[in-house]
Design a protein that fits this description.
Elements: H1 2-48, H2 65-84, H3 105-124, E1 134-137, E2 140-143, H4 144-168
Antiparallel strand pairs: 1-2
Helix pairs in contact: 1-3, 1-4, 2-3, 2-4
Length: about 180
C-alpha cells in the first residue's frame, strides 16, 4: 500500500512539474525563432540601404543609419553575452568592434550577423531555470526573462528608425517579416 501511495504521489508531481518546466523551455524556443526572424529582417534592411546613404541622419542629434545598425549589434552583444551570459561588458567609449569608423556596409552587416550567431548560440544553451533570476538593469531589478524581452524591443526600436531613414531617402523598405 505504501508503494502505491509513493508511486501515485510521484506520478501526480510529474504531471504538474513537467508541464511547468516545459513552458519555460517553450519560451526559449519561441524566443530563438523570433530572434532569428528579427535578424533576417534587420539584415535585409541593412542590405537594401545603399552604402552612400549609411551616414544619413534624420536630425543632427540622431544616430545615422550605420550607427543604428552598429548600436543594435552592441546592445545585442551586451544583453546576451554580458547580462544573460555573465561576460564582462564592453566599454562603449573604447570599443572598436561596434563603432562605425571606416567600416564598409559589408563589414558592418557581417559584424552584426556574427553577433546574432553568438547570441543565438548562448541562448540555445541558456538554462530555463535562470529566467526568473534578477539583475540590476539601469537601477531597476529585472528578471532575465525581462532582459530577453527588452532586447527584442531594443532591436525593433532601432530597426524602426532605420526604416524611417529609408523612407526619408525615397526607398521602399523590405516587406515586414512576421513573427518577430
Amino acid at each position: 500500500m505504501k508503494h502505491i501511495f509513493v508511486l501515485t504521489t510521484l506520478m501526480l508531481f510529474n504531471s504538474v512539474a513537467i508541464p511547468l518546466f516545459a513552458q519555460k523551455d517553450i519560451f526559449i524556443k519561441e524566443y530563438l525563432e523570433r530572434l532569428e526572424n528579427s535578424r533576417k529582417y534587420l539584415i535585409l534592411v541593412a542590405e537594401t540601404m545603399p552604402q552612400e546613404k549609411y551616414g544619413f541622419k534624420a536630425t543632427p542629434e540622431s544616430l545615422s543609419f550605420a550607427e543604428n545598425l552598429m548600436h543594435i549589434g552592441f546592445a545585442l552583444d551586451w544583453h546576451s553575452q554580458s547580462l544573460l551570459g555573465g561576460r564582462a561588458s564592453r566599454e562603449w567609449k573604447t570599443d572598436t568592434v561596434y563603432k562605425v569608423a571606416e567600416k564598409s556596409k559589408e563589414e558592418m552587416i557581417d559584424t552584426v550577423n556574427k553577433t546574432f550567431d553568438e547570441a543565438i548560440k548562448l541562448i540555445e544553451k541558456f538554462e530555463p531555470t535562470k529566467l526568473d533570476d534578477e539583475l540590476d538593469y539601469f537601477g531597476l531589478n529585472r528578471t532575465k526573462r525581462q532582459i530577453f524581452l527588452l532586447l527584442a524591443d531594443h532591436i525593433t526600436h532601432h530597426r524602426g528608425q532605420m526604416l524611417v531613414y529609408m523612407r526619408l531617402n525615397g526607398l521602399v523598405p523590405p516587406r515586414y517579416v512576421l513573427f518577430q
